[in-house]
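Re: How this chain folds, sequence and tokenised backbone to follow
Notation: Tokens come from a learned vocabulary of local backbone shapes, not from coordinates.
Start of record: The labelled sequence and token lines come straight after this line.
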Amino acid sequence: MKKGIATKKGGKFKATISGDLVISNEKEAVNLHNKNRFGELVGGKIQYSLSEALYLLEQSKIEVHDSKKRLSYDAFLKKAKRLEPNIILRYKVFADLRKRGFIVKTALKFGADFRVYERGKKPGKAHAKWLVSPVKGNSKIIWYDLAAKSRVAHSTKKNLLIAVVDDEGDITYYEVGWIKP
């Protein structure tokens, strides 16, 4: 068993893909949420982003079903790519941060891909420290977009991290901040 992710002994729990979310109402999903903060508890069910579900699928902690059948990792990834074309880029950053011990949540309302909590801090009990925007290593960043993301991060008392993913999948994080001269 991978460190930090615990479910029932030797077991996976079932979840269903619905739009761009993966949803479970199983006890193990709630337990995993309570212990490791995977997913969001909404109306007694746990809702996972596609990146979270892909991570849990890779860790053999979840079975994802569509309306017809259980999806293999490859079938789920294919479906996720149709729903979210940049899922691979986002997933690499999500997985890297989770493996480093951070809690990672979506941050669309902040104009970023993720919000990240310091180690030991939990959503609902503390505020995220960073907003994270993944970019491909060979992509160009428009200064206006960078300034806008930085402004939102600053106004919400968070730091902006640009996660640059190179062709080999290595990730370099750059923290962007405001200074007063």
About this structure: Helices lie at 27-36, 50-58, 73-83, 87-99, 143-155. The chain has two domains: 13-83, 87-176.
